[in-house]
Amino acid sequence: MATYLEFIQQNEERDGVRFSWNVWPSSRLEATRMVVPLACLLTPLKERPDLPPVQYEPVLCSRPTCKAILNPLCQVDYRAKLWACNFCFQRNQFPPAYTGISEVNQPAELMPQFSTIEYVIQRGAPSPLIFLYVVDTCLEEDDLQALKESLQMSLSLLPPDALVGLITFGRMVQVHELSCEGISKSYVFRGTKDLTAKQIQDMLGLTKPAMPMQQARPGQPQEHPFVSSRFLQPIHKIDMNLTDLLGELQRDPWPVTQGKRPLRSTGVALSIAVGLLEGTFPNTGARIMLFTGGPPTQGPGMVVGDELKVPIRSWHDIEKDNARFMKKATKHYEMLANRTATNGHCIDIYACALDQTGLLEMKCCANLTGGHMVMGDSFNTSLFKQTFQRIFTKDFNGDFRMAFGATLEVKTSRELKVAGAIGPCVSLNVKGPCVSENELGVGGTSQWKICGMDPTSTLGIYFEVVNQHNAPIPQGGRGAIQFVTQYQHSSTQRRIRVTTIARNWADAQSQLRHIEAAFDQEAAAVLMARLGVFRAESEEGPDVLRWLDRQLIRLCQKFGQYNKEDPTSFRLSDSFSLYPQFMFHLRRSPFLQVFNNSPDESSYYRHHFARQDLTQSLIMIQPILYSYSFHGPPEPVLLDSSSILADRILLMDTFFQIVIYLGETIAQWRKAGYQDMPEYENFKHLLQAPLDDAQEILQARFPMPRYINTEHGGSQARFLLSKVNPSQTHNNLYAWGQETGAPILTDDVSLQVFMDHLKKLAVSTAC
Amino acid sequence: MNVNQSAPPVPPFGQPQPVYPGYHQSGYGGQPGSTAPPTSYGAYNGPVPGYQQTPPPGVSRAPPSSEAPPASTAQAPCGQAAYGQFGQGDVQNGPSSTVQMQRFPGSQPFGSVPLAPVVSQPAVLQPFGPPPTSAQVTAQLAGMQISGAVAPALPPVGLGYGPPTSLASASGSFPNSGLYGSYPQGQAPPLSQGQGHLGAQRSAPPQASSFTSPASGGPRMPSMTGPLLPGQGFGGPSVSQPNHVSSPPPQALPPGSQMTGPPGPPPPMHSSQQPGYQLQQNGSFGPARGPQPNYGSPYPGASTFGSQPGPPQPLPPKRLDPDAIPSPIQVIEDDRNNRGSEPFVTGVRGQVPPLVTTNFLVRDQGNASPRYIRCTSYNIPCTSDMAKQAQVPLAAVIKPLARLPPEEASPYVVDHGESGPLRCNRCKAYMCPFMQFIEGGRRFQCCFCSCINDVPPQYFQHLDHTGKRVDAYDRPELSLGSYEFLATVDYCKNNKFPSPPAFIFMIDVSYNAIRSGLVRLLCEELKSLLDFLPREGGAEESAIRVGFVTYNKVLHFYNVKSSLAQPQMMVVSDVADMFVPLLDGFLVNVSESRAVITSLLDQISEMFADTRETETVFAPVIQAGMEALKAAECAGKLFLFHTSLPIAEAPGKLKNRDDRKLINTDKEKTLFQPQTGAYQTLAKECVAQGCCVDLFLFPNQYVDVATLSVVPQLTGGSVYKYACFQVENDQERFLSDLRRDVQKVVGFDAVMRVRTSTGIRAVDFFGAFYMSNTTDVELAGLDGDKTVTVEFKHDDRLNEESGALLQCALLYTSCAGQRRLRIHNLALNCCTQLADLYRNCETDTLINYMAKFAYRGVLNSPVKTVRDTLITQCAQILACYRKNCASPSSAGQLILPECMKLLPVYLNCVLKSDVLQPGAEVTTDDRAYVRQLVTSMDVAETNVFFYPRLLPLTKSPIESATEPPAVRASEERLSNGDIYLLENGLNLFLWVGASVQQGVVQSLFSVSSFSQITSGLSVLPVLDNPLSKKVRGLIDSLRAQRSRYMKLIVVKQEDKLEMLFKHFLVEDKSLSGGASYVDFLCHMHKEIRQLLS
């Protein structure tokens, strides 16, 4: 079925869309029986070097409730200069500018290859990009030094007309005024007191005391730069100033007594940052970049007290409802995140500390606003430095790979409704005819706001087939979905990207084979995983696992070929073959398992899982394992303990970690120094090969993975051992003593056991 | 003085001046004519010695029958004049008096020409001129004291004496023998008289004009006069002593007749009467002030006198003669002359120290110097009944950190090491010279509570045969009245030795402050001023750290850490919940961070140059400073420079509530009360932290000083106010105040406790401090200018033998951060006789107490009530004296105790002060400001504040190096040909008479005529001529004497500004309704009589 694979790939490349089903069951009932919902992974800003944006505005359907955009699927009457909306069937006149169109002279948006097209809106003054640094000063000296250097470096990467601001915090929060000469000036806030946006703006002098009425008039954006100029300045003006200022940054001077944590007012600092932007540049692309080296210890949003003897909450505490500050802190950050999202700004969190820093509580700031979340051990690591630098990478056009203040709107043809989205977005609460009553993820709306995006940001969007069983769709009918993404490009242009896709309907009873063949198990696995992770945020872990299991079993029952009560007869077609395996690894993944992970780590992993594209997501679910040996070129091998062999070098990519593992023999050889002997140069090459490959991955990935170079028996080998399928454990000693791999000391079930059970359950009639 | 004044206009007079001494003598000697006198003279001389011992006899009395009336009346004025000039002169003598009187007229501004009197004066002078050797004075004193003690018994004699010539009245009037005593030669009469006539004639007109008889005078007269014999009556009163003022006797005698007789009779009279008088006087006068001015008699005299030549109306002028009533100038001069030359040795219990106006040295021999403690009375009634009867408040004005003149050593610091100072186990009093060692030195008995304590082994010392420890003179705490202990850690907050204190400068940078140039000026000044922070002893540099804050409606803190290239500003706009944004780098050592600080001070005025912010906050500023000190864990002082009413939204926000309609209503008190309780709360926190607040105000309009000064007041700080500040005009004053304020030595985080002998107890405290309980005075800061007035009450009997002891212990942190205890001890006598009490009082201290009492009273009671209370109390004091101590005399006579003879005049000044009786031009802020100032004034300050010093500049020879003698603060004393300086510790006026010689104008102002002098001028041109130098030198020295810089205002006679000036002529009736001295005295007399009857 190469055709479907090709089709899927082609669609992904063209539109950035992967559907779980590429042929759609034509009735609600059938659709629900499919188990895996009709859904897609959408990468709205997928890089399309071959897609030059058009310099005019889209043509909209005139029906107020529809407003779909003219697309290749529309029927066009060239003579009458009319087009029919393929969603609501409204007939629309072309605007005057289109008088010249004909079959041979079509505008781009009508050409099939432009099912995805980007418009550039010329209206409105371009607003500059804004970068507001929020910097923790309660750091160790060398950490702070490293951070300062990174920040100074970043200044050189910013576009010269970008506005920058600086807020530092420790026990107090300082908002630095960047405009003044001579004396450096900053506004200081107590770190313990929550302030409303109004208060913050008053205290920063952002509200104009005189003639507030006049200036409240809309359409005077030029006032803004004036007001805010003290705190947010074009980088080209204050480059030197800010560099010096950063250079002079001191560690928080307040004494920290023995046995205490430094007082860190992250909550208030963020609140002020949000308030500052809210008051000065609402609805303008802006990044708040929070750099923190530890948990908030005071004020609103505090996560842990300053007594070191009281450790920061663990999963254990949370389960026991023992995390004193968690709920309040979470509430605080959620409130901030929502405000930020409303204003179209995004919050990045760069947390570098050995212990937890409260990402669990703060995660929503990044999650809801599309900001980045980076977790590291120290600012003085290449992990942080490179990751941070990578934020400012540019695309082939020389533009930053970031977009701001995006709104994603989904329009569906009438047989479909949109049930929700999972990704770095917030609901805009726009009800419409195409909004389903059932919610999957963030639902109840047909529009979402994504304040910060990059070309890989991917949302899972879930649909519901609402066509009734007794209202069959005519043969050959197609369902259509239009994704309209309005956003601020990093070049400060406003743009609209429109993707319109269509898929065939099929009657699930008569054409199940078609539907089955058009199943995209990778997309389905990721979409299901997103649903699971989404649930895990609010539900107990075991419940989520049970739900996933049930879904898997039902899917197998539906699409497996078997004889009742005969597990051995169970077969799955090719298009489903990998799916159970994905689920197996998903169950073991840190997205659903909290064991061995701190709450912060879980939040971090889940954050990235909810925004990466399909390929990366799959890697997260089921890490990739390559094997290097003298026997041939590197080859992907099973993520299985049987792959761990003494004469192999393994390279594992889990997305978050790159692990290079030298088998026992290899490690011994290396220890003996063979690689340095000219006669063993091939060994040297063998050792080098995975390093090079790893480097390649490291270069490309954001955030930069943790790079682990270990060997047999090394303590860090645990990163590998915890991931592989424990096909050999201390419990099943059949391979003991043989050279067939390394036993894993675990009680986890292996894939084999898992599959056995799955088959048994799938074929049983009991459920 | 008068003479001097009159000099210019009157040629004869003027000449004598330079030659004065000689002149007098010659005149005196030359008095050939005094034939009769000689004998009397002799007689007199005889008595003189006796006099000195017992001051009294009414010399003046002599004049009585014959020449008396006119002469006497005339005398009074003369007497004063003489007094003023010569200090001791007694004018009373009949004859001489006339002369003097003439002189007086001459002196008056109004100008009738005076004359002959000159001659007479000399006579008066002579005796004095030579005498004043210190030895004599002391002898006198001694004698007087003795006599004083005797006094009470004597009255009968006086009575007995009476018969001859209706003595009673006469005796009553006489009392002021003191003057007499000192003035042996009073007899000169004949001579003087002769001259007197001339004088009288000329002077008459002016006098008449100047004296308008007060309404009050009239009615009273009848009653007064009744009993008196004509001749005597006249004589008596006229002779009248300073203390005793009898109301005008008068009508009875035709002046003419009296005039004729004079020469002959007087002498005899004198001699005969003397004994009786003496006695009486003793009774009435405190011994302390030997020489008394003669004031005397009153009234009509003057007028009659003036009219003498003509037949006319003896009656019309029914008024007390201002010259006849006790003169502050005279008293001050006397004390200066008598006590200024010898050091005051504190070894003797219950000694009354010299007046505050006298320059004297103190030798500490076991009691605290009067510079540290002054009492209203040095002899305390043994029982509360007596105290109640007398109504004399028992109070001590304590200035624990008073600055000493360079000649006096500051208190020794005693270090007792680990164990700390030795204290009584029961009452916790500190070891002092009064502690009694017993049992061979193994124990000591506490002198306060009589508890017997063990002497710790390391402190043991053997006793000598007198029971004194052998090492008594090696140990300051056993031999001195004042000394310091090093405190141990037990005396420190949190049991931690304090860190050095800090100064924080908090500068208003709102529009007003910038526009007036204040900020620029201040920053410029601070740059150099920071080199002069107070340091301890020989320390090379001050340990004090400094910090800077500017503010308008938000606060700006500055990081001036030495490692920074540029200062950093940190803005705190959360004024509702103030905090300190930085720790490190806010408080810095000046020398380390000099570059950064200089850079900051350079930039501050630039940064805010174009500010538009007019609103300010206030409470948060103090809060911030306090928090900063708290964070730094040290005590310190905030210097706030503030311009306007804090109306910005913040804690402590105020509204303009200035309402002049409230004046003289029951609600007037609200003007003095703080608007909100927030400041009290804040002050409490400041005190707990040892944060003292000094406030410099630069208001252009109402700023509610009453509220703003709450914190400075409760934290032991100072308030300075510069209304409508303009750099050009007020720069000098502000900078001078600032320099002094920053440089002065301050004790921080202090607690003061006053312990007393069993029997009395400190019950009430006045001053700038906070008290959280009834015994401990808590002072966040205390400098050398601040005083605490403490009132004592009996709670038991005192013992006459052991006396009453006071121990004031002040625990404080020095400028270098050393914790110390300063101890002052004072032993007072106790008496069972009221007379002893009255003999050992100090009016200046009494006034200090009463003013503070009244000024606190206005917070709670209507001003009228407060005034009435004062008057009543004063009347009761005097009535009690009259009833119990003075010899019986006519009810018509006002008899004042010697020590309190100035009480009425001073009290009147208090009553008419701006706080208690505001004039139309006095703002609410001014009143609150003054009220607040007075609260922590010491005795010297209140003295000059209520009774300003008025110094004639052109009377005495330019060459004389000394300060010219002052004149009484009354318009009558001003001569339009002279120039005067007036100062009261806050204000300084240069009054220029309209007919001042051109040469003088030229040499002082560098303009050619009076009309060209700029009214309101505040700086005298620097000219190179003796007069200019002298005047400027004098101004400088006056300023140096006061704790605040006095801005000079040049006032021209008949100019608009003169109103301002006249406000300070406190003996005159004030525009706001304050009584003149004379009127008030009459009123007081009436009150007393009511009480007596």
TrEMBL record, chain A:
Q: Where is the Zinc finger Sec23/Sec24-type domain?
A: 58-98
Matching entries from Gene3D superfamilies are given as:
beta-sandwich domain of Sec23/24 (2.60.40.1670), Sec23/Sec24 helical domain (1.20.120.730), Severin (3.40.20.10), von Willebrand factor, type A domain (3.40.50.410), Zn-finger domain of Sec23/24 (2.30.30.380)
Q: Show the InterPro entries listed in the entry.
A: ADF-H/Gelsolin-like_dom_sf, Beta-sandwich_Sec23_24, Gelsolin-like_dom, Gelsolin-like_dom_sf, Sec23, Sec23/24_helical_dom, Sec23/24_helical_dom_sf, Sec23/24_trunk_dom
Give the highest taxon in the source lineage.
Eukaryota
GO biological process: one example:
intracellular protein transport
Q: In Gene Ontology terms, what is one molecular function of this protein?
A: GTPase activator activity
Q: Which residues form the Sec23/Sec24 helical domain?
A: 520-618
Q: How does it sit in the membrane?
A: Peripheral membrane protein
The record places domain Sec23/Sec24 trunk at 126-392
Spell out the GO cellular component terms annotated for this protein, sorted alphabetically and separated by semicolons: COPII vesicle coat; cytosol; endoplasmic reticulum exit site; endoplasmic reticulum membrane; perinuclear region of cytoplasm
Q: Where would one find the signal peptide in this protein?
A: none
UniProt entry keywords in alphabetical sequence:
Cytoplasm, Cytoplasmic vesicle, Endoplasmic reticulum, ER-Golgi transport, Membrane, Metal-binding, Protein transport, Transport, Zinc
Q: Mostly located where?
A: membrane
Where does the record place it? Cytoplasmic vesicle, COPII-coated vesicle membrane; Endoplasmic reticulum membrane; Cytoplasm, Cytosol
Describe the task this protein carries out. Answer: Component of the coat protein complex II (COPII) which promotes the formation of transport vesicles from the endoplasmic reticulum (ER). The coat has two main functions, the physical deformation of the endoplasmic reticulum membrane into vesicles and the selection of cargo molecules for their transport to the Golgi complex.
Family in the record = Belongs to the SEC23/SEC24 family. SEC23 subfamily.
Q: What PANTHER family does this protein's entry cite?
A: PROTEIN TRANSPORT PROTEIN SEC23, PROTEIN TRANSPORT PROTEIN SEC23B
What is this protein called in UniProt?
Protein transport protein SEC23
Organism, by scientific name, is Panthera tigris altaica (Siberian tiger)
Lineage start: Eukaryota, Metazoa, Chordata, Craniata, Vertebrata
TrEMBL record, chain B:
Q: Where is the composition biased (Pro residues)?
A: 8-19
Q: Where is the Sec23/Sec24 trunk domain?
A: 498-742
Which InterPro entries does the UniProt record give?
ADF-H/Gelsolin-like_dom_sf, Beta-sandwich_Sec23_24, Gelsolin-like_dom, Gelsolin-like_dom_sf, Sec23/24_helical_dom, Sec23/24_helical_dom_sf, Sec23/24_trunk_dom, SEC23_SEC24_subfamily
Q: Name one GO biological process term.
A: COPII-coated vesicle cargo loading
- Entry superkingdom: Eukaryota
Q: Where is the Gelsolin-like domain?
A: 962-1034
The family classification in the record reads: Belongs to the SEC23/SEC24 family. SEC24 subfamily.
The entry's protein name is SEC24 homolog C, COPII coat complex component
* Name of the encoding gene: SEC24C
